[in-house]
């Protein structure tokens, strides 16, 4: 009896035929992956070639795909991203103005103001992508630029490349899906 169990457990089972739909789905998965990888690599090359930060390019990519349902929603996400970056500049100024008088409490005060604005915009058409607002805030504070204007413009340029790459990726993937 044990011999039978052992034989049946080790005997090769015939492979189930792969359905045409599964093969097509697998092929589409590979195409989508390759499209995204090639576009991301090209965007990273472009940002590095012009002296921008590749990580900042991916900020635009991430923002684009927070609402990938349409190009219009992607544009709205990028507008919210850039608004978050602008809001971070305001936070930077609040901290600079309040630090001499209230010290380390300046940052929590600034964060409170920034959070009120970013969260408060969640129902405003075009600017209602709260996640993109916070990604913009994070990006600006992560860069911690010495020159605020140059830092902001650098982030906008790099994230614009990323958003453009996200748009291109989305369009090409939809073309392959059709």
Poorly predicted regions: 1-14
Pattern of helices and strands: HHHHHHH
- What is the overall pLDDT average? 89
Count of β-strands: 0
Strand content: under 5%
Rg (C-alpha, Å): 24 Å
**Helical content class:** over 70%
Largest sheet: none
Number of helices: 7
Which of globular, elongated, flat, extended, rod-shaped describes the shape? Answer: elongated
Structural class: mainly alpha
Instruction: Quote the distance from N terminus to C terminus.
Output: 55 Å
Model description:
With 178 residues, this protein is mainly α. The protein has helices at 2-10, 20-49, 54-64, 71-102, 106-120, 130-143, 148-177. Helix 3 (54-64) crosses helix 7 (148-177). The protein is elongated and about 65 Å long. Mean pLDDT is 89; it is low at 1-14.
How would the blueprint of this fold be written?
Layout: H1 2-10, H2 20-49, H3 54-64, H4 71-102, H5 106-120, H6 130-143, H7 148-177
Helix pairs in contact: 2-3, 2-7, 3-6, 3-7, 4-5, 4-6, 4-7
Offer a concise description of the structure.
The protein has 178 residues and is mostly helical.
Which descriptors would you attach to this protein?
disordered N terminus; 178 residues; mainly alpha; single chain; 79% helix; elongated
